[in-house]
């Protein structure tokens, strides 16, 4: 296969004994009631809501007009049908989507003598057969980056702009404008390219609202639905770690492997699983979230571990993120230092900095051995700022064997091919 699959399993560890009372939601955004429900309180209605397949607002409108006997209907007729099909959509959402589809040329208004105007589908502008343009959007907390790739993965256009601060509508407007500009720059009709969005956090399966994003104004919002409405087409949206894994599995360091695990070691710790060229999301949309499992095989001085934003203690993220390394160094030496400085000092022979890196790589080996035992990937691709430390690629494979349940370990740890560009490239490959 040309692309690898990055797979991750998240196990909710309970530290310091089992707790009898309901626990706070482990995701600090989105529908906080989802994880608070007791199993006995689950109703058949809530179960069916979670199991309901998600149909995009745009696709629902198009499908309705395609199957309607007259192949056209009034705005309010469209609203009534779509709202009845999609429980999380409001009438105003549908009206906005209809207006945008008309502006994009995908719907046309037809005047009916003696009656209300109706809308009907138009033929989409043909896309050049040799372009198959894919637009990827990296929607980050500080910057929004947009890239356009052709069918062969060649970069056709790239642009980066600062993310509007704490302004949801401004962020959506900027993404829409940058996508439109990318299409124009590549000389394809606006609305013809496929679009994928990568962002920290993920969509709740229960509410379709974003959760866990470092752009906090996006949390609790129907980001995917609103962008589909503004862009006038179905889009794909995934966690940025999944996009990184998909990029490296498609035409990067994991190309040609069946199972690829992509790792982010940076401000946080994330992961994504690609299998057979497809991202593994999971029914809870958390596949690959290895950073919020407890550090495996902890030593006595590693218990119970630092508090994590998810509500637990001792998560892998609290040890292997950049802040985690800095915290460990401070605890051991009493001196504050950034991860980059710690690495540089160790290279110059500083014993305390070297000891910090030894502890870090020992923990990284245990944490990745745990992943190998569960996922057994062909290759693990390291990304994020801490992936630039050369020694990990030699020391971790030399250390992890005692914790891998096998007589040999054939999984390899490799550097990313696309580096910092993997996230936005993966979003483009994610595009439908």
In helices, the fraction of residues equals 25-40%
Order of helices and strands: HHEHHEEEEEHEEEHEHEEEHHHHEHEH
Summed up, the helix count is 13
Tell me the major beta sheet: 5 strands, mixed
User: What strand line-up does the widest sheet have?
Assistant: 6-5-4-7-10
Average residue-wise pLDDT: 83
What is Rg? 24 Å
The chain-level structural class is alpha/beta
Give a description of the structure.
With 432 residues, the protein is of the alpha/beta class. Helices cover 35% and strands 16% of the residues. It is built from 13 helices and 15 strands. The strands form four sheets. It has a five-stranded mixed sheet with strand order 6-5-4-7-10. Strands 13-12-11-14-15 form a five-stranded mixed sheet, sandwiched between helices. The chain has a three-stranded antiparallel sheet with strand order 1-3-2. α2 crosses α3 and α3 packs across α4. The N terminus is likely disordered.
Present the secondary structure layout:
Elements (H helix, E strand, L loop, with lengths): L43 H8 L5 H11 L4 E2 L1 H11 L5 H13 L3 E4 L7 E4 L12 E6 L3 E7 L5 E8 L5 H18 L8 E6 L2 E2 L6 E2 L11 H9 L4 E4 H12 L7 E7 L3 E7 L2 E2 L36 H5 L1 H12 L5 H9 L3 H25 L3 E5 L8 H8 L12 E3 L7 H9 L2
Parallel strand pairs: 4-7, 7-10, 11-14, 14-15
Antiparallel strand pairs: 1-3, 2-3, 4-5, 5-6, 8-9, 11-12, 12-13
Helix pairs in contact: 2-3, 3-4, 4-6, 5-6, 7-13, 9-11, 10-11, 11-12
Summarize the structure.
35% of the residues lie in helices and 16% in strands.
């Amino acid at each position: 296969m040309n692309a690898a699959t990055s797979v991750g399993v998240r196990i909710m560890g309970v530290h310091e004994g089992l707790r009898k009372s309901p626990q706070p939601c482990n995701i600090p955004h989105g529908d906080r009631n989802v994880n608070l429900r007791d199993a006995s309180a689950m109703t058949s209605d809530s179960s069916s809501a979670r199991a309901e397949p998600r149909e995009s607002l745009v696709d629902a409108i198009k499908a309705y007009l395609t199957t309607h006997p007259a192949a056209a209907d009034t705005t309010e007729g469209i609203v009534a049908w779509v709202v009845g099909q999609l429980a999380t959509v409001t009438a105003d959402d549908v009206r906005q989507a209809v207006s945008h589809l008309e502006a994009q040329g995908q719907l046309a208004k037809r005047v009916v003598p003696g009656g209300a105007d109706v809308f009907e589908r138009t033929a989409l502008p043909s896309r050049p057969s040799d372009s198959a343009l894919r637009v990827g959007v990296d929607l980050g907390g500080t910057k929004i980056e947009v890239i356009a790739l052709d069918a062969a993965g060649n970069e056709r256009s790239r642009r980066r702009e600062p993310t509007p601060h704490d302004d949801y509508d401004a962020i959506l407007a900027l993404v829409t404008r940058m996508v439109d500009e990318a299409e124009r720059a590549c000389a394809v009709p606006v609305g013809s390219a496929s679009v994928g969005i990568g962002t920290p956090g993920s969509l709740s399966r229960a509410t379709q609202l974003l959760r866990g994003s470092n752009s906090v104004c996006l949390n609790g919002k129907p980001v995917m639905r609103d962008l589909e409405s503004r862009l006038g087409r179905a889009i794909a949206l995934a966690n940025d770690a999944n996009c990184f894994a998909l990029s490296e599995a498609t035409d990067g360091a994991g190309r040609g492997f069946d199972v690829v695990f992509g790792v982010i070691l940076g401000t946080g710790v994330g992961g994504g699983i690609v299998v057979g060229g497809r991202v593994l999301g999971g029914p809870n949309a958390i596949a690959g979230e290895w950073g919020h499992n407890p550090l495996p095989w902890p030593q006595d001085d590693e218990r119970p571990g630092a508090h994590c934003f998810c509500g637990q203690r001792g998560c892998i993220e609290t040890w292997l993120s950049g802040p985690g390394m800095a915290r460990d160094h401070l605890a051991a030496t009493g001196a504050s230092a950034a991860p980059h400085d710690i690495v540089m000092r160790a290279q110059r022979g500083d014993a305390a900095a070297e000891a910090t890196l030894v502890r870090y790589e020992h923990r990284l080996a245990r944490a990745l051995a745990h992943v190998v035992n569960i996922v057994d990937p062909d290759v693990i691709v390291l990304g994020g700022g801490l992936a630039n430390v050369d020694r990990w690629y030699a020391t971790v494979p030399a250390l992890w064997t005692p914790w891998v349940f096998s007589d040999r370990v054939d999984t390899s740890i490799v550097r990313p091919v696309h580096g910092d560009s993997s996230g936005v490239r993966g979003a483009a490959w994610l595009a439908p």
